[in-house]
Design brief:
about 40% strand; mainly beta; 3-stranded antiparallel β-sheet; about 170 residues
Length: about 170
């Protein structure tokens, strides 16, 4: 499992900022990936969250903006399975009572073995039909419903000042 690796979550090989809830596909073999940030519901209500990946993945959602309150809402074991499980594997979950405009921390984890690799998180209104792989019903969470997560403990404050112009188009820091 990804979380059992001694490097998780503090050491990583790359950081990529995404504009939706998909991860780059066919990146390589034997790696882990964490996609995290805030989900911002566009309307009040109940939402069903789905995850699909190659290989194993987990999707967590918090009851608020705090990562400490996250809980597992969807998972996939193995690879390339449909969004809706026929064997009881919980790859989707309905979360009730989300408030439009509020931030809810989310985290998707992928553990890639070998071969093809991808990760997609989809949300639907609770009354909408589930997504069907390789159709228009698979719409990743758009950037309008996402925000980046920054842990203030990991980013020390830095005061930046405007550089002083010294002539000839050159600048010198104050």
């Amino acid at each position: 499992a990804l979380t059992g690796n001694p490097a998780f979550p503090d050491f990583y090989d790359a950081t990529v900022y995404r504009t939706n809830s998909t991860a780059p596909s066919n990146v390589g073999d034997n790696y882990g990936l964490r996609l995290w940030g805030f989900f911002i519901p566009p309307t009040n209500g109940n939402y069903t969250f789905y995850i699909r990946s190659d290989d194993e993945s987990d999707l967590f959602l918090s009851s608020d903006a705090s990562p400490e309150n996250k809980s597992l809402v969807a998972s996939q074991t193995g690879s390339g399975r449909p969004y809706v499980s026929r064997d009881g594997n919980p790859r989707f979950s309905t979360v009730t009572g989300l408030t439009a405009g509020e931030q809810y921390y989310f985290e998707a984890l992928l553990k890639e073995g070998g071969g093809e690799d991808y990760l997609t998180v989809v949300f639907k209104g609770a009354e909408e039909p589930p997504p069907v792989h390789k159709t228009r019903s698979v719409t990743p969470v758009p950037s309008s419903a996402l925000a980046c997560y920054v842990n203030p403990d990991d980013v020390p404050p830095r005061v930046l000042s405007r550089p002083e112009q010294v002539g000839g188009g050159q600048f010198r820091p104050e």
